[in-house]
Write a structure and sequence with these properties.
The protein is mainly alpha-helical. 63% of the residues lie in helices and 0% in strands. Helix 2 crosses helix 3 (42-54), helix 3 (42-54) packs antiparallel against helix 5 and helix 3 packs parallel to helix 6 (112-131). The longest helix has 27 residues, at 80-106.
Length: 133
Amino acid sequence: MAILDRLPTTDRLQRMGLSVDGSCCLCADGQESRDHIFSACPYSKLVWQAMLDHCGFHRASLEWEAELAWLSANLRGKKMRVIVCKIFWCSFVYHIWEERNYRRFRDKKRDCNTLIHSIKETVNIRIQSIGHL
Ligand SMILES: [Zn+2]
C-alpha cells in the first residue's frame, strides 16, 4: 500500500475532494503525503536513521524513491543481515503509519525513541520466530 501510494494520506483525500486537515501530525510542519510521512518528515527521518545505523548502514536517509531504489539494489539474497534489514524496513513503514493513525484518531503520541524501541522489539520477535522454523 505504501509503495503503491494507496494509503489514505490527507493529500490523497484532499485530491478526492474531502475537506481534511492536511498537516502532518508527526511533525506538525509539513503537508501529509506518502513521501513526507515516510521520508521527508523530521520525525520519520530520525526513526529511519536509527534503523540504518542499527543495521550497520552508515549513510543518511534518502528521499522516498531513492530509498526504495537503494533498498531494492542492496537488499538482495538470503543472508541474515539482508533479511533483518528487510524486516526493519517493513516494521518502520508499519510503525510510522500506526503512529500517524494513533495521533490522528486516538490522540496518542510516542516520541521517536519510544517508536525506535518498539520497532526493535518487533524485529527481535520476528527474528526469533524465523530461528524456530
Ligand atoms: Zn511531518
